[in-house]
Amino acid sequence: MDKSLLVAVGDDMSSLHGVRFLSSFFSQKENMEVTLCYIAPTSVSKDFQVPAQPLRPQRLDQEITAQYSRTGHESIDAGIDILLSKGFQKPKVTAKYRGKRLGTVKDLVQEGKRGNYDAVLLGRRGYVLFEQALAASVSRQMLDQTVDFPIWICRQPEEGRRHVLLCMDPSEPSMRIADHVGFMLKDEKQHDVKLLCVDDGGQENMNHTLEKGKQLLLVNGVDEERITSQIIKASNVPEAILSEADRNAYAVVAMGRGGAPQKGLFKKWFIGSRSLKVFETISKSVLWLSR
Prior knowledge:
The chain has helices spanning 17-25, 57-85, 104-114, 135-143, 172-185, 206-219, 237-247, 273-281, and strands spanning 3-8, 32-40, 93-99, 119-122, 151-153, 162-167, 193-199, 227-233, 250-256, 286-290. It is α/β, with parallel strands linked by helices. The protein has two domains: 3-153, HUPs (Rossmann fold); 162-290, Rossmann fold, CATH 3.40.50.620. Strands 3-2-1-4-5-10-9-6-7-8 form a ten-stranded mixed β-sheet, with helices on both faces. α6 links the parallel β7 and β8 (227-233). α1 (17-25) packs parallel to α2, α5 (172-185) packs parallel to α6 and α7 (237-247) packs parallel to α8 (273-281). The radius of gyration is 20 Å and the shape is globular.
């Protein structure tokens, strides 16, 4: 079964971190469908090249559209070139260019839902006109939307890293991310999975939690010899996770995020305090988050 991924592409062609992560992390590229998505701004950003000669409003709008169209297609083309050069199959690499309608983050969420993707990837910098200045802020906004797909945060991943650190607790989001890791890594024999529980005195039956996570990996087809488990005692859970990720140079840190949706018409997806701390700090590893 093919894996289907949506990669947000921005104006900075030097920061195609999501594309580079896919190229270096996955070996079974023939089983992956990748869609690069650029959502064009609808107003002038600080990087917009103002014409030397004043233009009428209609002409200025046309110039804005033309500039962002060029930039968007250049970024998409650069991303496609990287993917194809690393072994992804041309018929399975597609591109979508969109004008911003609801706001960049909301448009990405809509596209993620519409395409029924297995995950949506966000890079470090991304778009010039995201609702916040940094891609971390953009990712934070996206995490606050009602989404039902995993999000991968590719801030500045270090190439050459291997394996997945799967952080477990008894929550449903934690079990969902374990299922997601199993689905994505079934055929990626070069990557092992370590199930990690951090004992800060607030959890019980950690061995049971680890066993449930292991069973989800096994059901998805991950070989048992690729799975290990560990319980670490620490008072600061995020610091323990980040320390373990850095010490063993994991390519991916995977975790769920808690929080129940608010009542009312507009539901929000709140990020738990532990996963938020990891989200705000992690850099060299890619963070996989699931609701």
